[in-house]
Amino acid sequence: MTTNIIENKTSNLIKDVGSFPSSQVMLDLKNLKKVYPTPKGDYVVLEDLNLQIKKEEFVTIIGHSGCGKTTMLSMIAGLNPISGGYISVLGKHIKGPGPDRGVIFQAPSLMPWMTSLQNVLLGVNQVFPHATKAQRYDIAKYYLQKVGLEDAFDKKASDLSQGMQQRVGIARAFAIKPKVLLLDEPFGMLDSLTRGELQDTLIEIWNKEKITAVMITHDVDEAIFLADRVVMMTSGPKAKIGDVLDIDFERPRTRKAVLEHNDYYKYRKHLIDFLEH
Amino acid sequence: MKQSITLGKVTKFMGLGFLGTIKDLFTGKLEKEDLISFLRKVVVPFASILLFIGLWHMGSQSLYNIEAEFKIEKALEDQGPAAAEALRACIASGESGCQPNTLPSPSQVWASYQSLLRDHNIISADKAAFIEKTAVLNEKRIAEGKDPITYTGRPSFVDQIFRSLKTVFAGFLLALLIAVPLGIFIGLSPTLKSAFNWFIQIFKPVSPVVWYLLVFMIVKTLLIDSNEDSSFTISFISVGLCSMWATLVNTAMGVSSVDKDYINVAKVLKLGPFQKIFKVVLPSSLPLIFTGLKITLSVAWMVLIAIELLAQSPGLGLFVWEEFQNGANDSNAKIIVAMFVIGIIGFLLDRLMLTIQNWVSFDKTDAI
């Protein structure tokens, strides 16, 4: 879809969004606005932000630091009030946070006094209150196994490495079976080796579950490897969607295949050109 | 081998790590590199204790001499040289009736300590004999529906210690039951915080004596019909009210400063208020709550002495006051014994709290 970069960027900034049939749309951001009042007057972080995300789509969001990516994501999560416009999930406007939108935070945010199993159960118990105890344990254990932690069920979260903690975070988010998964730079604090491993884990579990995902990242390669579409945000204030890039690699993907694909460097150049202007 | 590792861990856990070093010395496990640390941890404190006792001895000796000279001079002025000579001889002979009354020396204090222990043994034996003697009679009285006869003799020094500990724990429990829940509510709700802030700021610095008087006013009226001795009730409530502030403030602070990430997790998972408090807020603020409780216990122990003294409630405070009023020749030494006992128990209470804190709190970075 998006082939000619330079033209798109300058002319029609909100192209490509709002064009899906409503039955396909999972997440809809319409004329979204965020204003922080300051002593010197209002500071507009986001304005006229329009974005639609399809069911079973993986979207990564890339943009400069401080452009309002995290603000947007926490608004979708319901943790940050909306100043204007609306956000809807399957046509229903969101009101506050809820387990239909799972979040994987930048810091693992596990309760350090709980074991990894207890951390996952905390969410599972909440979402499946009518399941038996055994069923809930099975769900939690299943997802911990999926992220490669079958030997660490009873380890205290504070005893796990950062990478392992984030694995628990992934298991916790998937285990509550959300409609939308929101990831706020989940691998930003990890070293590049662990980061690669966790990307593989994430994409593996995602291929099975196909939960609509919105992920913020600073890493261009990560954005291409994981996404169906990469959304580029303009720098704030008054940030909005700058450009959208479709990634047409077929799934399931392997890192090797992606790196060797002819289009890879074209995509990469597109993103870097956007970020450098 | 395994045993000794656990023991070492336990002592370290309780903040008594130096005991392990002493044990290593005797079992010959000490490496050369450990020698410096051994010197620092064991020899230096031991030397400083000896130095302290030495200075104390010299100090008390010089005070004794000043007091003795003054006494003799006074006798010389008032009663003439013969009386002065007699007094000098009396003091030199070490007779208890004419000893100068001043700071006792370490050996006097040690002697008093042993005499207090002997006294305790005598009283305990007396008490045991009394109970044995009245056992049959008491059974009969209970069967007849009358009150049993109880031992009403003078409590021993050790009994006083246990009475004091009882008062302190009752007061501490009261402080815990008031301050922790209240602190949680204040920490969770900014409205409650502003409602209670003035209250905390004004009452926190109030002196124990005034708290005692306030509690006395209220409890006296509430228990007006009761024949029971209210001194225990009054003193433990006063101790609780004096000491609860640290816990209240720390709990409120801990609860209101829970990591925002945890709160966000709770929000995303839509945890109910009950679950949010017990699964997220409380565990994460436990370290701060325990810091507060530790302060509370040490404050409770500190104000206890003053409050027992005022309330005439049996315990170490009353013991100290009675000895001071008593003015017997070994009274001063007994007061110093009580001082050390108070200090040592305070230290042990603090270690106890530290142990519990390490036990329950998740942040075990410097424990085990």
UniProtKB/TrEMBL annotation, chain A:
CDD domains linked to this entry: ABC_NrtD_SsuB_transporters (cd03293)
Domain ABC transporter per the UniProt entry, residue ranges: 27-260
Keywords, comma-separated and alphabetical: ATP-binding, Cell membrane, Membrane, Nucleotide-binding, Transport
Top-rank lineage group of the source organism: Bacteria
Cross-referenced InterPro entries: AAA+_ATPase, ABC_transporter-like_ATP-bd, ABC_transporter-like_CS, ABC_transporter_ATP-bind, NO3_transporter_ATP-bd-like, P-loop_NTPase
Subcellular location: Cell membrane
GO molecular function annotations of the record: ATP binding; ATP hydrolysis activity; nitrate transmembrane transporter activity
GO cellular component: plasma membrane
One of the Pfam families matching this protein, by short name: ABC_tran
Annotated membrane topology: Peripheral membrane protein
Protein name, entry field: Nitrate ABC transporter ATP-binding protein
Native species: Algibacter mikhailovii
Lineage: Bacteria, Pseudomonadati, Bacteroidota, Flavobacteriia, Flavobacteriales
UniProtKB/TrEMBL annotation, chain B:
Family matches, as PROSITE patterns: ABC_TM1
Membrane-spanning intervals of the chain: 38-58, 168-188, 232-253, 286-311, 331-349
Membrane topology: Multi-pass membrane protein
Alphabetized UniProt keyword annotations: Cell membrane, Membrane, Transmembrane, Transmembrane helix, Transport
One GO location term (cellular component): plasma membrane
Boundaries of every ABC transmembrane type-1 domain copy: 161-353
Subcellular compartments: Cell membrane
InterPro entries found in the cross-reference section: MetI-like, MetI-like_sf
UniProt entry tagged with the keyword Transmembrane helix: yes
UniProt keyword annotation of Ligase present: no
BP term (GO), one: transmembrane transport
CDD domains (UniProt xref): TM_PBP2
Matches recorded under Pfam families: BPD_transp_1 (PF00528)
Highest taxon listed in the record's lineage: Bacteria
Membership in a protein family: Belongs to the binding-protein-dependent transport system permease family.
The protein's name in its UniProt record: Nitrate transporter
Source organism of the structure: Algibacter mikhailovii
